[in-house]
Design a protein that fits this description.
Number of helices: 17
Structural class: alpha/beta
Helix content: 40-55%
Number of strands: 8
Shape: elongated
Order of helices and strands: EHEHEHEEHEHHEHHEHHHHHHHHH
Strand content: 5-15%
Number of domains: 3
CATH architecture of the largest domain: Alpha-Beta Complex
Distance between the termini: 123 Å
Length: 437
């Protein structure tokens, strides 16, 4: 354990909510870090399970526990934890993940060696609900989190066009950056980390230690897929990313915007504030992820451009884009309009019918299996009866053969000379028996 208290204080912020199953394992992985100079801030976000009881049993003086009276969700709880930070460095920990023993020490050493960076991430190993390594089962996720140190422009492009590939609980940053970029945005639930790292990356750079220093837990279902995904999850994820896109270029310096996105400009020569505003609007309009439609937030930006006489003229003359072209965009399904709602309603009804069909099929399968079992029992009984019949047939055949042998013996006796000679004696014997009746 690194006991040198001259090393800078690290503040670890952990938000928890109904986390009893993995909580103590996660906390212990922080308490047993080889880097000992820690302030561990745990914010209980209105837990109703055994989490509060488990937290009360912690005796380590480095641990500070704060309890929210009601569940306010992760962004609010994280910001509350940020307000208690006293350390030079800030690390974020989830309540179900596990840190390797030297994680923080190696990150502090990296930060001191690379003062040009204000943050540091690491690679991860993936584990399931039982703590089993599932790197092979979730190879795409493993690859996603195996990034390398890249420049500011690379990361801004990746965030905008693809999404996030930074593992939040692997991070360590200079704590004073929070006062510059602010806390987490309370609007976001699933993409709160990405939105925060986008703002961070507009101001600072970070490095990545290419070594797994965290065990990142993913709960799998029976199909070896992450079980948390659902229609609501996917919809919220997409909607939040659309909002991130809408604000993506806010407060971004023009020079940085040109360096990062020039290759994607409609006109690579764009450089004036008005031209760059148009390029940003067209970029935000682009489809995101697997979607093939233009984005609604992008059309809001287009509206701003068209209602400004200066940019409206520029869009017409330079980009050949006016109200006519805008109408082609707005003719697509940008929002969850009544047509899509009816399709979704029809889909929901079909899904309900499909589920009922599956229930009926399962019931029929059960009945068929029961009937098949009865048939197997009858077949077994038939085989047994057949064996008994075969045995009785053989026994009858044996008795018939014995009876024939006896009849043959009797006929031989009757036809023998001795039988004929003794015939008068047998007759006399029968008469003698008859006279004594």
């Amino acid at each position: 354990m690194v006991l040198n208290m001259n090393l800078p204080l690290i503040s670890v912020v952990m938000t928890v909510h109904n986390s009893e199953e993995y909580l103590m394992e996660s906390i212990n992985s922080v308490l047993t870090q080889s880097y000992a100079n820690l302030q561990i801030i745990i914010v209980d976000d209105g837990s109703t399970d055994k989490t509060p009881k488990l937290l009360k049993e912690i005796s380590d003086k480095r641990v500070e526990i704060y309890t929210l009276s009601e569940n306010r969700h992760i962004s609010y709880a994280t910001n509350y934890g940020f307000s208690k930070v006293r350390g030079k460095y800030l690390a974020i920990m989830d309540s179900d993940d596990i840190w390797m023993k030297d994680k923080l020490y190696k990150q502090v050493m990296y930060m001191q060696k690379h003062p040009e960076h204000k943050g540091c991430f690491t690679w991860v190993d993936l584990i399931d609900q039982d703590g089993k390594n599932v790197n092979k089962e979730l190879s795409q996720l493993k690859e996603l989190f195996s990034a390398s140190t890249e420049d500011q422009e690379y990361w801004l492009r990746f965030f905008f066009f693809h999404g996030n590939r930074l593992n939040n609980p692997s991070s360590l940053i200079d704590a004073d950056t929070v006062s510059e970029i602010g806390g987490h945005n309370l609007f976001y639930i699933q993409a709160t980390d990405m939105e925060w790292w986008v703002r961070f990356t507009k101001k600072y750079t970070f490095g990545i230690i290419e070594e797994p220093l965290i065990k990142y837990r993913r709960i799998l279902n029976n199909d070896k897929n992450v079980s948390s995904y659902s229609e609501i999850h996917d919809a919220r994820f997409y909607n939040e990313h659309m909002h991130i896109r809408y604000h993506f270029f806010d407060d971004m310096e023009d020079e940085l915007f040109i360096r990062a996105f020039k290759e994607s400009f409609l006109d690579p020569g764009s450089h004036t504030p008005q031209e760059l505003a148009c390029e940003k609007a067209f970029l935000i309009c682009r489809p995101f992820g697997q979607s093939s439609s233009y984005s609604a937030p992008g059309m809001i930006k287009i509206e701003e451009m068209l209602n400004n006489p200066e940019t409206a003229l520029l869009m017409k003359e330079k980009y050949n884009f006016s109200t006519i072209e805008c109408g082609k965009y707005t003719g697509n399904h940008l929002y969850n309009d009544p047509y899509l709602q009816n399709l979704q309603k029809g889909y929901s009804e079909l899904k309900k019918q499909n589920d009922l069909c599956h229930l009926h099929i399962n019931k029929l399968d059960g009945e068929i299996n029961h009937q098949n079992q009865e048939i197997r029992q009858l077949n077994t009984a038939i085989v047994e009866k057949g064996a008994m019949l075969q045995a009785l047939t053989q026994q009858s055949k044996d008795l018939t053969e014995k009876n024939n042998d006896l009849l043959n013996d009797l006929n031989m006796i009757k036809n023998s000379t001795s039988w004929r000679i003794t015939s008068p004696l047998r007759k006399l014997k029968n008469k003698f028996k008859g006279s004594h009746r």
